[in-house]
Amino acid sequence: xxxxxxxxxxxxxxxxxxxxxxxxxxxxxxxxxxxxxxxxxxxxxxxxxxxxxxxxxxxxxxxxxxxxxxxxxxxxxxxxxxxxxxxxxxxxxxxxxxxxxxxxxxxxxxxxxxxxxxxxxxxxxxxxxxxxxxxxxxxxxxxxxxxxxxxxxxxxxxxxxxxxxxxxxxxxxxxxxxxxxxxxxxxxxxxxxxxxxxxxxxxxxxxxxxxxxxxxxxxxxxxxxxxxxxxxxxxxxxxxxxxxxxxxxxxxxxxxxx
Length: 258
Description:
There is one protein chain. The chain is α/β, with parallel strands linked by helices and 258 residues long. The protein has helices spanning 36-40, 47-69, 88-104, 114-120, 164-175, 182-189, 213-229, 235-257; strands at 5-10, 15-22, 26-34, 78-84, 109-113, 132-137, 142-149, 152-158.
């Protein structure tokens, strides 16, 4: 059986990525053009800036991905591309590039859901057994997904407001941490103690929905009130308390879903 090659394009947020996959399992190349430095000064992703950066580098990423994989466009069997969810302008750039490339080389175009990509990436760690329950925690999404078989996804719970990643970014900005703040908050949390009583929203309710806006607001209010009073809060304890609240909510809802 002949080898099959797929070119994959991802541009849902602030990084342009193009990969080449062999026989659906072997990753031959994965080119990533990061925009972190561009968005760092804003403390978060600016959609218009992200879109412009994608335009500048997407064709170069395609060229580099093919070169690193050691194949030509004529050897490809299909082109895959993220069609959503994500930033509209950023997605449009990736979609336009993938469509144009696929049309120019007479290749089928495969639309891929961004969250399904996150979920199925777990196969890189070990083979998945079905049925399964997935907890997806990304920058803009927090979801519980039941998967009865490959490609059959059912969202059984999701956030009603902020996603975990959004809460982390906002908390990091308030504390003056470098964007993206997730890793730094986690490192500080491991050095601190859960001493602040942050809310665990909807943790005891029967449904499987999440909410993190109240936790984010509680953190910001505590931080601002301390600043106004001239009080010094321990960053390590703040991070530990915030992260403990997040994990309590995620674990409680996942166990309830199971």
